[in-house]
């Protein structure tokens, strides 16, 4: 059995169910950017899944996967009725736009959440960002490279936690393909989360599938990401490897880890 890096033994004893919230509503296709561009108007929308008549709830901003070239926003089933507001985001896709446009959209959606989530009962001091695959990559990029959110007057460090599911830590493969690089040729440049390791980032929970079943060394690049965050002095970096789960299947059990860390981080903030 391969090693799985655990938060703390005490986390395993925590009841992983957050406070139940009763009835939920969904508001769909909310525009989070003001633009005249037709493609941006069609893609830059989000859904908000929130509890009725409740306040001060934590929020997860969720970015879908799809290699930055496909995919649609959705509310993860595992986060429904679990005491969490979910903001599910669509963003523009390659090759219709450039990689900076994808990251810019992710930042704009998180900025919208900071501004607006209070209207839906969310607490702007309890915002977590997460996503699977390409969504995990976007999560790490906007959380570590502070220039994307500062444009909106937001310090990336005000994000309560970053929880990427099986995202690239090196430069994204779709971006490398556009540059004529092979999938097997790694790159760490300004479009790699690894480029921005730093001690003062928000708590970082990295989740990967089984190293023998993941895509192109995805576990190993994330393990290096975790190690370099620790070397840089970041004390709240955690790494999980989900034995027996490939790149796609790892998302379902990863939500268990996401919810446990949300509870742990919020409890720690109270101390």
Walkthrough of the structure:
The protein is an alpha/beta fold. The chain has one domain: Alpha/Beta hydrolase fold, catalytic domain (Rossmann fold, 3-Layer(aba) Sandwich). Helix content is 29%, strand content 20%. It contains 7 helices and 8 strands, in the order E-H-E-E-E-H-E-H-H-E-H-E-H-E-H. It has an 8-stranded mixed beta sheet, sandwiched between helices. Helix 5 links the parallel strand 6 and strand 7. The termini are far apart. The N terminus is likely disordered.
Keywords:
271 residues, disordered N terminus, eight-stranded mixed β-sheet, globular, alpha/beta, 7 helices, Rossmann fold, 29% helix
List the helices and strands and how they pair.
Layout: E1 24-31, H1 38-43, E2 45-51, E3 57-63, E4 85-89, H2 99-116, E5 122-132, H3 134-144, H4 147-150, E6 161-165, H5 173-178, E7 204-209, H6 218-231, E8 237-242, H7 251-270
Parallel strand pairs: 3-4, 3-5, 5-6, 6-7, 7-8
Antiparallel strand pairs: 1-2, 2-4
Helix pairs in contact: 2-3
């Amino acid at each position: 059995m391969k090693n799985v890096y655990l938060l703390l033994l005490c986390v395993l004893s925590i009841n992983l169910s957050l406070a139940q919230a009763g009835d939920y509503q969904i508001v769909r296709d909310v525009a989070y950017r003001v633009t005249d561009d037709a493609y941006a108007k069609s893609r830059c929308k989000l859904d908000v899944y929130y509890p009725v008549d409740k306040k001060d709830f934590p929020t997860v901003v969720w970015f879908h996967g799809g290699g930055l070239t496909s995919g649609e926003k959705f509310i993860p089933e595992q986060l429904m009725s679990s005491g969490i507001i979910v903001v599910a985001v669509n963003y523009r896709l390659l090759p219709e736009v450039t990689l900076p446009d994808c990251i810019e959209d992710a930042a704009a959606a998180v900025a919208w959440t900071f501004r607006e989530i209070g209207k839906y009962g969310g607490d702007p001091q309890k915002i977590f960002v997460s996503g699977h695959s390409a969504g995990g990559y976007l999560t790490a990029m906007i959380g570590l490279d502070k220039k994307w959110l500062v444009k909106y007057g937001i310090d990336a460090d005000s994000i309560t936690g970053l929880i990427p599911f099986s995202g690239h830590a090196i430069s994204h493969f779709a971006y490398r393909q556009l540059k004529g690089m092979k999938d097997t040729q790694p790159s760490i440049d300004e479009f790699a989360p690894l480029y921005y390791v730093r001690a003062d980032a928000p708590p970082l929970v990295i989740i990967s599938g089984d190293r023998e079943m993941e895509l192109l060394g995805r576990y190993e690049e994330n393990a290096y990401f975790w190690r370099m965050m620790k070397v840089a002095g970041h004390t709240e970096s955690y790494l999980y490897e989900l034995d027996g789960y490939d790149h796609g299947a790892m998302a379902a059990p990863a939500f268990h880890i996401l919810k446990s860390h949300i509870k742990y981080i919020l409890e720690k903030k109270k101390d």
